[in-house]
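Quick one before lunch.
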Amino acid sequence: MLYDHHMGIRFKKNITFKTKKIMPANILIEKSAEHIIKSKYTVAFTGAGISVESGIPPFRGKHGLWNRYNPEVLDLSFYLENPVHCWRFIREIFYDFFTDATPNDAHLVLAKMEEKGLLQSVVTQNIDNLHQEAGSKTVHEFHGNSKRLKCLKCGKMFDVTDIDLKNIPPKCDEDGEILKPDFIFFGEGIPRKAYENSFADAENAEVCIIVGSTGEVTPASFVPRAAKQNGATIIEINPQESLFTNYITDVHLKGKASEILNQIGNHLF
Ligand code: APR
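Model of the adenosine-5-diphosphoribose complex:
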């Protein structure tokens, strides 16, 4: 099903590969800033890489979470059968280590771009709330948010700061049901509003800035592809190549999110 969150699906190479000119990094930065200034509608698509400099590890790669943990703990059917087992890992991965993370310059530059009318929205796969904490207003949370917990029985929402996670699994104070983090597990549907708004923005985008994503997870990775198909210029910020780089990316800015966005910011404000 298109709406469900899946990992490990590879793109087919069905978009014409354009040979990119090799240009010095500072010229690429300047050109990217020009694209952004000219664009009437710019969207950022962000992945785990944008939060690495805030101390949150990515999912894939050498130091990735999926090298240390079994992704089955975030598989919806496995979770529903084994919530207590899964919660032990969920607490460790998402709540023990990263609750004190704060936005880095990459989040802050995107927020400033929005404030100055140079960015219309952020579509994020991240569940860490750092875009909102940086001041971004229009954020489409494609995979939900770890700061909220939800009762699957009555639908009541809880702010994680009101819950004592020393006792797991956390339970609903209305009906005693186990609470689930309000982020999207594998096999779970993408929140309809975030999905629709993200693809509507992809259609409108004249420029799409991809920051720190391998592009391995669907349907999220279809968002920048949709932007490309609708004619957007794709600027990618990533120290590595991703599944986007040789397929849809027009300008690959090789480097860390905060460094590159700070340099772009110097041309914008
Ligand atoms: N700046 C920019 N990019 C970086 C940085 C950095 N400082 N550090 C790492 N990266 C890049 C990596 O090169 C990699 O391409 O960030 C990317 C992180 O990739 P993933 O861990 O796969 O993250 P993402 O693509 O966001 O994962 C998508 O997978 O498990 C699921 O639901 C989870 O939302 C997540 C989804």
